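Hi again,

Forgot to attach this to my earlier email, sorry! This is the prediction with F0G bound. I've pasted everything inline since the attachment limit keeps bouncing my files.
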Amino acid sequence: MADGCEPVFHKGQRTTNKGRVSNAYLQCIEDGCRRRQDPRRDGHACAACGGLLEVLYDSLRLDPEKLRYQWHQRRLSGEPIDRSGVWRFRELIPFVEPAHRIISLSEGSTPLVGTRRAGWWAGPVHLTIKHQGNNPTGSFKDLGMTASITRADSRGVRMVACASTGNTSSSMAAYAARAGMKALVFVPYKQISAAKLAQALDFGAIVIEVGDTFDEAFRLLREIAPEIGLHLVNSVNPFRIEGQKTIVAEMMEQRAWRPPDYIVVPGGNLGNASAVGKGLRELKEFGFIEKVPRVVVVQAAGASPFYKTLATGSRELIPVENPRTEATAIRIGTPANWRKARRVLEWTGGFCESVTDEEIFEAKKVLAEDGVGAEPASVSTIAGVRKLVRAGKIERHADVVAILTGNQLKDTEYIMRHRAESEDNAQRLRVEPTLEALRQALEKPLAVTA
Ligand code: F0G
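Structure tokens for the complex follow:
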């Protein structure tokens, strides 16, 4: 099968454990619990204490030298499994049995792009961006989704569900369609961008618009899910994190295995920060990298529960009741993965910052001057770096990778609002169809260029 739905290991790639790829299991992350879960159930909360779960692997041994070479070689392969930037690193995520098919859309393999203006503006720092907007559905969610849908498929799940600020729903709808599953999406009413809603509809998902915030939609979904047997693929699903963590391997490979000083991500439900941290932890444990970059999370000021929690030193989350930001992707007041993300910041020596919507817009404008577009939530990273350099928390000339999580076209309403509809904006001119009118209209723009 050369269509992205094919067995995980093939052509003699079968590995350890008597034909099984590995012994993946789920374990509670809470220090006081660490309970290993019943392997027959793929849950997303600990059966004993309700804590978050993570995927771990018994007796997994990886040879960095051999694998670096093998992963590199796979880039020359035409096989769909090797073209996927997630499954190319399949030794890091061996949780499906060898014969089972993967559900892939050639996700990952996204570019690492240098910036000049944005790096200067934000620091100066050596700023490169890992553009996850280049994924099949336009966001980083595809990395986690290929993993969680493949896992669900291997367990015979026929319907998946998520609550979303838009990107998870687009991604889930696409991968569910590919797997022949039904997709059920919960989104806050009129609070997600039209493009994201359109994607979910286009892929045939059933869209339930419920509540005013992501938090409300997510709470209702979590409450009703057990009652009607729904399989959740939000980032509390630990297999999502497995897919998303491969971004770190791909990034390191693109950098010839030289870790940057900082990796910066926007923070919403905090799955991404958790995944980046898990990826780093494993690469370090297996000896792929020596140095561990600090992970920095940036939130929008009006939706910054994690920032507030860490800034006040609280051991419990300080939720934001009514989160507000134009970066709708990260408009979240009660991030489900905050405990995982806190561990990542503690372990890597990282920190959290918050930026205003005005700062996000400034960053978006500067990045556009480098010819790079991204949705507002993504560029909060660059605004955050600028603030942290000014505060002396990130050194000038530091080596920084910002993960841009979503494509520019994910939220064109935002661009139209800010770029084309403001009164003093001379970018969009409506001109009568005569040469005279054109000459007049172009006088000012041409004068500026000259
Ligand atoms: N950036 C974008 C573009 C997002 O869509 C999200 C999350 C984030 C950053 C934050 O990532 O939640 O892992 O901390 N979007 C989710 C969604 C919530 O439903 O699409 P996170």
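The first strand starts at residue 5 and ends at 7. The chain is about 40% helix and 15% strand.

That should be everything now.

G.
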